[in-house]
Amino acid sequence: MSRCDIGHVRQADMVAAMPRWEHGSEERLKQAALELFQEQGFEDTSAVQIAERARVTTRTFFRYFRDKEEVIFADADTLKETLVHDLLQAADVSEPLLAVVRTLAGFDWERLGSRETQHRRNAMIAATPQLLERDLVKQHQVAEGLSDALRRRGIAPDLAELAAGAGVQVFRTAYLRWLAGDDDTDLTTMTETVLSSLATLVPGARSGASPDPGTPR
Amino acid sequence: MSRCDIGHVRQADMVAAMPRWEHGSEERLKQAALELFQEQGFEDTSAVQIAERARVTTRTFFRYFRDKEEVIFADADTLKETLVHDLLQAADVSEPLLAVVRTLAGFDWERLGSRETQHRRNAMIAATPQLLERDLVKQHQVAEGLSDALRRRGIAPDLAELAAGAGVQVFRTAYLRWLAGDDDTDLTTMTETVLSSLATLVPGARSGASPDPGTPR
DNA sequence: ACAGTGATGTCGCGGCGTGACATCAGGCCC
DNA sequence: GGGCCTGATGTCACGCCGCGACATCACTGT
Fold this sequence. Notes:
The structure is a homodimer.
Chain A: H1 25-40, H2 47-53, H3 58-64, H4 68-72, H5 76-89, H6 96-106, H7 115-126, H8 129-152, H9 157-180, H10 187-201
Helix pairs in contact in A: 1-2, 2-3, 5-8, 6-9, 6-10, 8-9, 9-10
Chain A binds a DNA duplex through α3.
């Protein structure tokens, strides 16, 4: 039933890389999904419901998103590409771990929404096993991408993988603390702190933090 | 159709913690699943097929395993418990990362099957996105468990998490190299090697490997 | 005006995972 | 022995998931 019974926007004729004309289905779907997830929780929301609220069919939903989870992680792929690109452009990768961590810390995270928004999003993820799982996967893919970038910058594969893995983990820890927002520490500072914590743990490391012997960015 | 048309084992009257009498459904299911996964791949195998080959209904399959993936990771939970237990018993956790890594390296991995078996299992996992995903989750759960154990041993939460995460990552790298089996290096040795690689990467670490200042186990 | 294109809708399917209830065998107790 | 309890399975019915195949319809460019 019903087709084009919406009286909506009709711009987007000059938008680059847009699918010809804008019906906004994808946006409505994202919107509807987020609303429903907030209202009733992720697990208790079915694709059918989302589609209904967005005034499209279930089929259309699955044309835009591989599954329910992907709605939440919609821009993860772009994020990964950006980070990889940034690392490839980095001035200096002679210290791979530092390069990774700085690439991550250097990204403009506010671009993904206000800290408050990200905080709520994260709370939802933390509360939902399925989403936690998907989050792990995305995180792993970022690490893979960064590891690959390091290799392309001439780092030995084994080191690249270790550095990427550890770097992502370090940053994630910092990011979560930053999101929690107990103090108003800068994300970059937070990252350096966690990094020096790691230095404390590694056998054969000087415990004092001296994270910046080279170009300060 | 068919009920009890098997002429099988009938012992297990004195076995501890056994479900009263042994019909062996679970074993048959595991067996059938592994066979089918090898024959046609994981994705192309349905729960129905597995159940048929094991001579039970689909319903029964799902009573034993939450989903297809869990057949492969059946003993992961036990493994985690064991590792946590081992870490809680560890002589010395004043160097958390070392403690974690040694706990992992100290486990008798051959207990989970011959190296060759584990190698094939791992190849299957690596070739199947869904399994790779689940593997990540299990790995993460181990890290969580170990982190928790460290905390119970008096390590600060932040450090515990970092140490557990990094430790698991270090060990996994070593484990994979060991599985690949290009050289016949000992798993423990391999682990120490990777650990010193990490030391190389962390800013403020002496590059030389000196992984054992204290009790050699 | 006609053919082409791209977003949606429609239909139908097979796999997934679960709740509710039935059944059946062996163990237990009197 | 006979009846009761218990635990493993089977049976049935259901709703959700995700996709292939094809139909439509709006808009575009020539």
